[in-house]
Amino acid sequence: MCYSIPAKVVEIKNHIGVIDYFGEKRNILLDDDRVKTGDYVYAQGGILVRTIPEKEALEILETWKEIFFELKKVDESLSKIKTDKLPENAMHILQKVNLRKTLTKKELASLFELDHKNELSVLYEIANNVRQRSHGNASCVHGIIEFSSYCQQNCFYCGIRKDKNIERYRMTCKEIVETAGNAVDKYGFKALVLQSGEDYWYSDSKLEEIVKSVRQLGVLVFLSIGSRSISTYKKLYAAGARAALIRFETSNKASFSKLRPGTTLQDRIALIKELKRIGYILATGFIVGLPEETSQDIINNIMLTKYLAPDMYSFGPLIPANGTPLEKEAIIKKELILKTTAIARLADSNSNILVTTALETLDLSAGKEALLAGANSMMINITPVKLKKLYSIYDNRAGINTVLHKSIKQTTDLLYNLGRAPVDTGDIRGLK
Ligand code: 5AD
Ligand code: SF4
Q: Which of 332, 362, 393 to mutate to test the pocket of ligand 1 (most atoms within 8 A of CB)?
């Protein structure tokens, strides 16, 4: 897989580089003084991943040249608003979004009221159109390695919570680097999420060794290790990690403390804010479908995500996991996630919105529908198959038995069919 097109650095000013993909420009943060104008680079989420020799870059660009413009055409055509007569409410909101005006909470709540099939399809069309105008056809695909299923927390919703009696595993640094190396060398991944439960068996120094070794493979290292201390996150940033995925799970204070015993929303938010301050690319979000959740809670979740100003939104449905306190919870309808995706896109047109495995578990075709309702990024699970089954945050996860080359093909086929191209999803220059 070559899921990232090389870009040429065309300008550098104060550690900000302007990079060019077939004439399309983006800004990236260059935290490496060796990079010069004229170099070819891979970038992810507005950050330099690595430089690439000119000869190799030109060869790759040659194969992409025609495909790139073909994909753009497909995306442009799929993201046109086809409904000629928009309902008054939708028209008003679209006008506001076009003028880059912030939608009020009341307006977001009124969108949430939409329920009729035709109204929803207009909402998705508008969100997809806004996505296209903010990001072009850029999409990103990150690999994820679930390196430990041990966790010291007892979240009510989670199938690997501490009190659940399950077979658990830990990958050694060597195993993680081998898995990551295979994903990079054989399949061309440019960004890898390292995910685990909150597992203090991995001391700061073990984590630093893992981050350094994976970073050396020439990828963006994305952490998803839960509420570790600020000092741990600082050390890991220094070791080369540049992104962190950490959901606040719910903006409802009482639910948060009930569902994550012994922890508070306030502390979680403080940590998330600090991660941004350290310089991490931030992915955050929430679960939809927690007990007693109201539509107001979901709107508050979107508003809180926006307030935290992440680079990526990550939210998905609760999949009630057997053997957890929430095993009897009702399963939500996929439309609720599609609606949340579209509203999040309208609330924050610049955001990157992830399609989660939980959504694909709910309904196999929902990934495609979410991409057509405002989402623009995906993840591929690269955990070795025999371990993937044991990382059972919920049961029957989508893709649990799929071998890696097949998941890659499914994901890239899906994106290419929708006209999405693997250029950086970071800040588009000139469109803001
Ligand atoms: N259903 C959906 N998402 C879940 N998570 C944990 N358990 C479940 C579940 N049963 C999510 C949490 C966590 C992420 C790693 O997985 O939001 O942050
Ligand atoms: Fe642990 Fe995360 Fe599961 Fe909570 S959701 S029990 S922190 S793995």
A: 393
Is the backbone of residue 402 left (phi > 0), alpha (psi -120 to 50) or beta? beta
Q: Are residues 200 and 246 in the same domain?
A: yes
Cα separation, 190 vs 335, in Å, equals 32
Cα 248 to averaged position of ligand 2 atoms, centre (Å): 12
Choice between 153 and 101, residue whose per-residue pLDDT is larger: 153
User: pLDDT digit string (tens) for 194-246?
Assistant: 999 999 999 999 999 999 999 999 999 999 999 999 999 999 999 999 999 99
Mean pLDDT of all residues in 25-54? 89
Are residues 52 and 69 both part of a single domain? yes
Domain count of the chain?
3
Ligand 2 centroid–CA 405 distance in Å is 28
- Residues contacting ligand 2 via CB (< 6 Å): 151, 153, 155, 158, 160-161, 197-198, 226, 393
> Edge-to-edge strand order for the sheet containing 281-284?
352-353, 312-313, 281-284, 241-245, 220-224, 191-196, 140-148, 377-381
- What is the residue range of 34's domain? 7-77
Atom of ligand 2 nearest to the CA of 227: 7
pLDDT of 301-353, one tens digit each? Answer: 999 999 999 999 999 999 999 999 999 999 999 999 999 999 999 999 989 99
Residue nearest to atom 2 of ligand 2 (CA): 197
Burial class (CB in 10 A: 0-12, 13-18, 19+), 218: middle
Q: Is the pLDDT of residue 426 over 70?
A: no
| pLDDT exceeds cutoff 50 at 431 | no
How remote is the CA of residue 153 from the centroid of ligand 2, in Å? 6
Q: Whose CA is nearest to atom 7 of ligand 1?
A: 158
Please tell me the residue having the least CA distance from ligand 2 atom 8. 197
Amino acid, single-letter form, for residue 90: A
Query: What CATH number does residue 57 fall under?
Result: 2.30.30.140
**Which stretches of 276-428 are assigned E, i.e. beta strand?**
281-284, 287-288, 312-313, 316-317, 352-353, 377-381
Asked if 378 contacts 354 with a C-beta cutoff of 8 angstroms, the reply is: yes
Nearest CA to ligand 1 atom 13: 247
Domain shared by 49 and 196, yes or no:
no
- Among the atoms of ligand 1, which is closest to the Cα of residue 285? 17
